[in-house]
Amino acid sequence: MQDIVRPINECRVCGHNDWLDVVSFGSTPLAGNLLGTEDDPRDETLFPLDVGVCRKCWLMTLRHVIEPNALFGHYRYVASDAGSIIQHMRQLVELCIRWVGLTDRDLVVEFGSNTGAHLELFQQAGMRVVGVDPARNLADIANDRGVKTIPAGFTTEVGQEIATGHGPARLVFGRQCFAHIHDIHEVLDGVSALLAPDGLFFVEVPYLAELLANNQFDTIFHEHLSYFSLGALCRLFESHGLRVVDVHTVDVHGGSIVVFAAPAAAGYEVRPAVAEMLAEERSQGIAEESTYQKFAERTERVRAQIRELVRSLVAEGKTVAGYGAPTKGSALLAACGLGHQEIRFCSDTTALKQGKLLPGSRVPIWSPEQASDHVPDYYLLLAWNYASEIINKEKSFLEGGGRFIVPIPEPRVISAESAW
C-alpha cells in the first residue's frame, strides 16, 4: 500500500508546507477503476481522499498521491464525442492558429492526448502532430486513427526526444490532464525542452473558482490532484520562464479555464483578461481561509440533500438510475453513500464501460439500448456538466413522465413542465 499511495507535505507549486484542511471524504476506491461483475468487492483497495489548500499560493490539492500507473496504466476515460466538446475543440484549434500564426507543417504536441481526437483536428488543418499519453490502450486507438502517439508520461526526456526527432514545437498543450499530474515541474521542464522560442503553451484545467462557487465536490477524486486558480498557475509558470499572456473561461467540465503562456522573451502581448481574472479572484476570496471553510460546509449539506432525496424516492417505490457513468459520477455516489440498492443502473454510451460495475457502489453500467428496456422513474444526472444537451436530447423521457435529478450545485428535479 505504501508503494502506491503517499502523503503530500510540500506544495507542488510553491514548495511550502503550510496547509489548511478543507474537506475529507474518508477512504474510497479509485473512482475510475471500474469492476468486472466477477470481481469480489472485498478486494477493492480504499485510498484516503483528503483535500487541503496551501496558505502560500492557494493551490487546492489532494493531500495524498496515488502511483500514476495505478490510475492511468489502462484508462477508460475516452474524450467525449458530445457535440459541445467537438465544437469546443474546433474553436481552440482556430484560436491557436490565430494566436501562434500556425502554418502548414508546424509541429503541435499534446500531452494527455487520449485517443487523439483534438490533435486530429490540427492534423486536418495541415499541422504535424505528436501525442503523448501514458495509457497504452488509448495511445493504440490514437495511432490506429493515424495520430502519432507515444505511450508514456510527458517528461523532460520525452520532450527532448520529440524535439530531436521532429524539431521544436510551435504549440504544446494539455487539455483536462494537467491537474492529474503530481510532478508538474517535470512536465514544464519538458515543455521548455520542446517549445520553439516563439511558441505558445496552454493548459485547460477545471477552474477552482467555479468548483468553490458551485459546490462541485464530485470533481474531487484521486485522479484530480490539483485544483488551480489563475494566480497559482501564474506563479508556477513564472518559475519556469513562462509568462501568462491570455486566459479564457470555457463552459466544459463544469467550468474551466484555458491559460496561454509563452517564453518571457517571445514578445507576446499580455491580454487584459489576465489582470481582470486575477482581480476577480481577489474579490472572490481565493486567498481567504473562510472561502474554503464555507465550501466545506456547503459540501456536507448538499451531500446529505442528494442522499436523502434519492433514498426517499426509492422508499416510495420509485426507480432511480444514473445517466452517464463518468468518473465524477462514481465520486458523487461514494460521497453521498449511495449504491446499487438505490441506483438500479447507469446508462452510458462508452463501450469500454458497458458491462462493468462502478467502484464501491457496484452499480452496473448498461448501454443506452439496454437501459431503454428498463426506463426508470428518475435519472440521477451524473454527467450534469452536459445537462442542457442531455435534457434536450431526452425530451421524450420527460414527456413520458420521467424526471431528471440534477445534483450540482444543489439537487433539483426536472420534469417536462419545469423550465431548465
What is the alpha-carbon Rg in Å? 21 Å
For the biggest β-sheet, the strand order reads: 8-7-6-9-10-13-12
**Mean pLDDT over the full residue set:** 93
β-sheet strand percentage = 15-25%
For the largest beta-sheet, the strand count, sense and barrel status come to: 7 strands, mixed
Which class best fits the helix and strand makeup?
A: alpha/beta
Low-confidence segments: none
Description of the structure:
- With 420 residues, this protein is α/β, with parallel strands linked by helices.
- It has 14 helices and 19 strands.
- The chain has a seven-stranded mixed sheet with strand order 8-7-6-9-10-13-12, sandwiched between helices. Strands 16-15-14-17-18-19 form a six-stranded mixed sheet. A four-stranded antiparallel sheet has the order 2-3-4-11, with helices on one face.
- The longest helix has 27 residues, at 289-315.
- It starts with a strand and ends in a 6-residue tail after the last strand.
- The relative contact order is 0.11.
- The mean pLDDT is 93.
Secondary-structure topology with pairs:
Elements: E1 5-7, E2 19-28, E3 47-54, E4 60-62, E5 64-66, H1 68-72, H2 83-100, E6 107-111, H3 117-124, E7 128-133, H4 136-144, E8 149-151, H5 156-166, E9 169-175, H6 184-194, E10 195-206, H7 208-213, E11 226-227, H8 230-238, E12 242-250, E13 256-263, H9 272-284, H10 289-315, E14 320-323, H11 327-336, E15 343-347, E16 365-366, H12 368-371, E17 378-381, H13 387-393, H14 395-399, E18 403-406, E19 412-414
